[in-house]
Amino acid sequence: MVICKLPEKPRQPSLKSKTLGLIVNPIAGIAGKYAFKGSDNPELVQRAIELGAKPISPERAKEALLVLNPLKDVLRLLTFPGIMGEDEARECGFEPEVVGELSSVKTTPEDTKKAARIMAERGAELILYAGGDGTTVDILEAIDQKVPILGIPSGVKIWSATFATTPKTAGLITLRYLWGELPVREAEVMDINEQLFRRDELNVQLKGYAITPYEPQYLQGSKWMSPQTTNEIEDQNAIARSVVENLEPNTVYIIGPGTTCKAIADLLGIDKTLLGVDLVQNGRIIAKDADEREILKAIENAKSKIIITPIGRQGFIFGRGNQQISPEVIKKVGIENIIVIATPYKLSTIPTLRVDTSCPELDEKLRGYIRVITGYRQILIKKIQ
After folding, report:
1. What is the DSSP letter of 86?
2. With contact defined as beta carbons under 8 Å apart, do 279 and 295 qualify?
3. CA proximity to 255, closest of 324, 328, 350, 343
4. Cα–Cα distance between 342 and 260 in angstroms, integer?
5. Helix 57-68 and helix 167-178: axis angle, to 10°?
6. How far apart are CA 328 and CA 317, in angstroms?
7. Is the distance from CB of 343 to CB of 239 less than 8 angstroms?
8. How many CB atoms lie within 10 A of CB 13?
């Protein structure tokens, strides 16, 4: 009798080891809730810490690292010491190869540049970093286009096209790129003059181009500013008329940044900031360029609503340049009291709306479909992804 044996299940080919650099800017985004418009000024960062600000980027770096954890045995992870990557890696189960030394207890842009240079020399195939536009500029200055880079969005100003949409998608892009599934492209590196930004003036500069893994669904584009053409201004004014007609008495309106939101204030005859978050009640401003604390205090015993417009091309309604409208604020106001406004042109640049509030549970609740006011008594249903 002949016994037939079934063929063994073929073994999966072993994955080739890859080398990843990780840089964490521990102060990136720390001043966002306090309306300080960025973290480039050490005095304002210290003030934010004294007010109770907690580091954001280490936690967001860990969100990305947890996605990479299943392949930690075939991933050579290069990090800078302590809070610039080593601590976060160890907390997520990695045994990183620590390179370089910190210049002092307080990290500096020079530490970021040094870390990038060493990682490039040690064979990093990708540098994953947690920070904002300032961190991106530092890395670009240090290594130019020698190594592809990918940002975990953690700053206040995130205009550059080198960032993933969320920390989790940063981890997914990293996996797919290192193991050969994604191409690279040149991505714009942008930065804002923070001093002018704090004076409500927008001065955006193109700093150069970095090489970045390309995944169109999970990689954000660089921010586009709405052109102030006659048609665009007319559309903004039509949206403003529609919103103003429906303003409710004794309700605190949390009005976000941008020209479309400012058109509402202009129609009311009040002086709103262009780049800040202002509070309006009964047709007058009760707080200008408000931070999270002021917002929470104003809405504690009052009905409230949020009026927000998405960022052109990127599509974010929360988590980019308006961190004052924090998860705590959104939960207090209620998802049903969020009013999204956008001109038809702006929506044409946005495939989908996005959120990145630093609270994954809230982001999940926000996802779905929402009404967007696009003109006078005109509504479009748009998906939040």
Report:
1. H
2. yes
3. 324
4. 7
5. 40
6. 16
7. yes
8. 6
Question: What is the Cα–Cα distance from 249 to 284, expressed in whole angstroms?
Answer: 11
Kind of pairing between the strands at 284-287 and 278-281: antiparallel
Q: Strand pairing of 304-308 and 184-192? A: unpaired
Q: How confident is the model at residue 93 (pLDDT cuts 50, 70, 90)?
A: very high
Each residue of 309-347: pLDDT tens digit? 998 888 999 998 898 999 999 999 999 999 999 999 999
Our measurement of the distance from residue 284's CA atom to the centroid of its chain's CA atoms, rounded to an integer in Å, reads 31
| pLDDT: which is higher, 229 or 344 | 344
Q: Cβ neighbours of residue 73 under 8 Å, at least 6 residues apart?
A: none
Name every residue whose Cβ is closer than 8 Å to that of residue 274 and which is 6 or more positions away in sequence: 200, 202, 257, 258, 259, 262
DSSP string, 288-352: SS--HHHHHHHHTTS-EEEEE-PPBTT-EEESSS-TTS-HHHHHHH-GGGEEEE--HHHHHT-SS
Angle at 196 (CA atoms; ends 315, 286), nearest 5 degrees: 75
Are β-strands 204-213 and 184-192 bridged in parallel, bridged antiparallel, or unpaired?
antiparallel
Is the confidence at residue 7, as pLDDT, over 50?
Answer: no
Q: Which amino acid is at 87?
A: D
Its pTM stands at 0.84
Tally of CB atoms within 10 A around 156? 29
pLDDT at 13: 43
- The dihedral built from the CA positions of residue 256, 258, 260 and 266, taken in this order, carries a sign that is positive
- DSSP 8-class letter at 104: S
Task: At 332, list the tokens.
Answer: 């207090």
Q: Which phi and psi (to 5°) does residue 265 adopt?
A: -65, -40
* Residue 139 pLDDT: 97
Report d(CA 156, CA 27) in Å as an integer.
11
Quick one: the chain helix, strand, coil %, rounded to 5? 35, 25, 40
Residue 159 identity (one-letter amino acid): W
The Cα–Cα gap between 81 and 102 comes to 7
